[in-house]
Batch of 2 targets.
Target 1
Amino acid sequence: MPNLVNYSTDLDVAVLTVENPPVNALSPGVPEGIAAGVAQANADAAIRAIVLIGGGRTFIAGADIREFEKIHAGQGGGLGAIMSLLGELENSGKPVVAAIHGTALGGGLEVAMACHYRVAVASAQAGQPEVKLGIIPGGEGTQRLPRLAGVAAAVNLCAFGDPIPAAQAHAAGIFDAIVEGELRAGAVEFARSVAGTKPPKTSERMEKLGDAAANEAAIAAARVEANKRMRGQTAPHAAIDAVDAAWRLPFADGCKKEAELFEACLKGDQSKGLIHAFFGERTVAKIPGIGKDVPVMPIRSAAVIGAGTMGGGITMVYANAGIPVRMKETTQEALDKGMATIRRNYENSVKRGRFTQEYVEQRLALITPQLSWDGFDTADIVVEAVFENMELKKKIFAEIDGIAKAGAVLASNTSTLDIDAIAAATKRPESVIGHHFFSPANVMRLLEIVRGKASSDSVIATSMDLAKKLRKVGVLVGNCRGFVGNRMFGPYCRESIFLVEEGNTPERVDGALYRFGMAMGPLAVQDLAGLDVGWRIRKEYKHLEEAGVRHAELDSLLCEQGHYGQKTGKGFFVYDANRKASPNVEVMGMAASYAAGAGIGQREASDEEIVERCVYALVNEGARLLEEGFALRSVDIDIVYLNGYGFPAWRGGPMKYADLVGLGKVCAKIREFGVRFGHPFWKPAPLLERLAAEGSSFSAYDRGKA
Ligand code: 3HC
Ligand code: NAI
């Protein structure tokens, strides 16, 4: 077992320093090392108190999540050593002081609460984020936290998982003191001040446990909030149950209850999905073949072309990251309109309490609206967000080529066009790349980074690094029509429209997918994006459509009547002035008469069929993208869908969901749809077929490529 805890002394105080970079997780060796240090200090008559501190950038940030992956894979692992440590800390005869900087999260906070005292620097944070991994605190946190902070504060921390700053933790009673100046010295001084007194055990404290009426109200309020904020998830309710037990049961019985609930959550698919998403978000930043040696260019200034829906949103993204940004338009009117939208968005954020007025003023001061090319010659990045028209984009890139400084990144926000063709309009295709933001750009976390065939490694590395600075999740994708997200979205939408054409109301189709966990149903999303977008594209590519193959028609029929979705107040649904949707009573009549003419049978589909048809359509196209190399790994596809398309994180993404269902079952169902519907697109992707035949999974395929 590695030695991950350093033992040192400061006169009569022992200092145990956890040395397990980068985040001092409780990996094998850490709990054992702390326990050994506590025993050593207790055995040494010269030592009167103990300080537990994290080396490097943080206190302990939690249990080692890789251990949970091992449990999921049936490869052992568990909390044994952590659980023993908690008792050993609390039972130490000499007081133990946790000295906290960075983040005391999950098992880290639980270890700190088993110590007798906690001191922290003002910048520290504390939290029980386990629910974000589909589990609950499993290190007695649901029982100690209410004893320190009361039931109401504890239930919020455990059920919703958001960390709180040190000052709040101090006010709540979680931290005993805030240390000014150097943490280690402050903690040693604190430890010395309590040496020789009887160490207080958190498990024995009762004074914060409150009265039944207040506790019941807090628990009930948390349940309502969990249903709203974490719809479909089981862990928040399990965490609430565990905290509820803290004031009803003696400590040991409460811990037993916590252990049962923890175990049940860990065994469930939701933790598999959420842990996959946690690591996935970090995996996508790693690009095979592009190592740390590839130079990343600093982006200190930006210039955006176009002040429309996307240009305005992208400008806000740069301003929000503190990067000065110019925004260029063709007419004063368009520029004013773009700036007015930006101001309105910021005002709404102030009204909702998301930003302060001062913050907004600072952001607005970073934006320079303009009609000229002024300053484009010094910008580190130029982002084009003009109309989706190849000739226009080529013209603009040729112009940028003549103006931008050498080495600047030239990015296009195109959602469908060929990046290589755009790059070919310049004499420096290596500098050109796609930065596909999602609407609204200032809100959606996803950024598809589209690699052209000439895009240089440095431009790719710079884009990935920039995504993080812009607080986006950057996913590198290949240059094909629709890239990863929208290419998969096509078959998903197609099935949703087919289902309506077959006699299922939009409310039924969207309802089934909403209950599955999607943030919005596919038909409502199409109404939001504008049905006319797909209609126009379809008209443009009509010549490529295969004769005799069924195509979704109903959206086009709606467009022909001037119903483009939300923007015209009517689409698959009808929208009032507040964009509240209600059924469009005309849709089913249109669907029925179209279906009669086209020979499409009418039948009611179950929720199960609706979900299978729509989600497996995503999975099958995802498998094709993977095999064709347009997605690096299946997890990249998952991260695209979790951050750009409202796929429920607790299902891990479409590819992980397919793994959890079992690829054999998914493949068999796709074949069955092929027989039933006779559509060529219901042919299993070769990769899916192969993995299913081998009894394998997309995750295993990813590991094989790593
Ligand atoms: N276990 C294992 N690895 C972890 C980890 C953990 N708890 N926390 C972070 N890591 C890894 C990341 O995967 C990443 O690895 P990589 O470099 O190979 O990609 C590396 O540490 C650095 O992480 P970040 O890139 O996320 O670093 P940041 O500085 O941006 O964030 C952090 C640091 C806030 C600590 C963030 O990593 C985080 O939120 N971690 C998870 C914290 C958590 O959920 N703790 C609870 C765990 S469950 C638990 O404790 C159960 C208990 O109740 C028994
Ligand atoms: P939009 O129509 O809202 O805005 C385009 C803007 O570009 C207009 O304000 C127009 O005046 C301006 N413009 C046109 N030619 C210009 C020029 N030569 N110089 C400066 N400005 C010029 O369009 P939107 O929706 O913002 O789309 C822009 C790009 O983003 C397109 O390529 C689109 O495919 C892509 N995109 C759109 C998404 C969406 O949901 N709307 C999502 C992701 C990408």
Target 2
Amino acid sequence: MEDQVRHPKHVAIIMDGNGRWAKARGLPRTMGHRRGVEAVRQAVRTARELGIEYLTLFAFSSENWKRPQEEVGEILRLLKFFIRRDLAELHREGVRVRVIGERNSLPADIRHLLEEAEELTVDNDRNTLLVAFNYGARDEIARAMRRIAEKLVAGETTVDAVTPELLDAHLDTAGIPDPDLIIRTSGELRLSNFLLWQAAYSEFAFLPCYWPDFDEAIFAETVREYSLRDRRFGGLSHEIAS
Ligand code: IPE
Ligand code: IPE
Ligand code: MG
């Protein structure tokens, strides 16, 4: 029982450090992103083996458009490559794919591919892979607020009904439990606009390795270390309370 309680249901990862991984090898940054895709495949597999029900991967932020056009183009290309190559296998393995982030401003071909991935896998219930693409938490919260405001104006909800639960239900992550554990690779100690609302009681693991080096052993060890933590959610720890 205790084991179950401490096992993370939802792990979210800020996959950072592709550029530095490449630079350290004298390679162009785009090579780091390519290797990053291989690390993604491995992480999805490992999450399944570790019994993690929900895995969220931060693939591209709403702020990443500031990068040179060539790099952005390569990242979009790799997303298409990943979906085309891996979607069928994900579906076979019973993985449901969901995409969070702003979609309307994405190129039409990317938008259609993301929709195709979601539609194909909508009835799968073994694991869920959430892909955060063109995702920014402030943008997500603002979009949720806008939808609630529209309902208020239309008389479909009341001011008193605006609660944390209502906001939750209007976020891109509606229906998905908050992340138990948020991992960031590359040694940076920040959230960079990732899941700001959902991370209220998440545990954090900041790892020194660059994303292309994140492997099964590192993932398993990070989850093991998480399982030893005492999460209190504002209450008292098990030891003190009992
Ligand atoms: C993460 O690696 C991938 C994306 C943000 C798309 P980076 O590209 O940020 O790599 P660093 O942080 O510059 O090393
Ligand atoms: C966060 O990494 C976004 C992704 C991993 C997709 P960044 O590399 O964009 O974050 P900053 O700029 O270092 O904060
Ligand atoms: Mg980075």
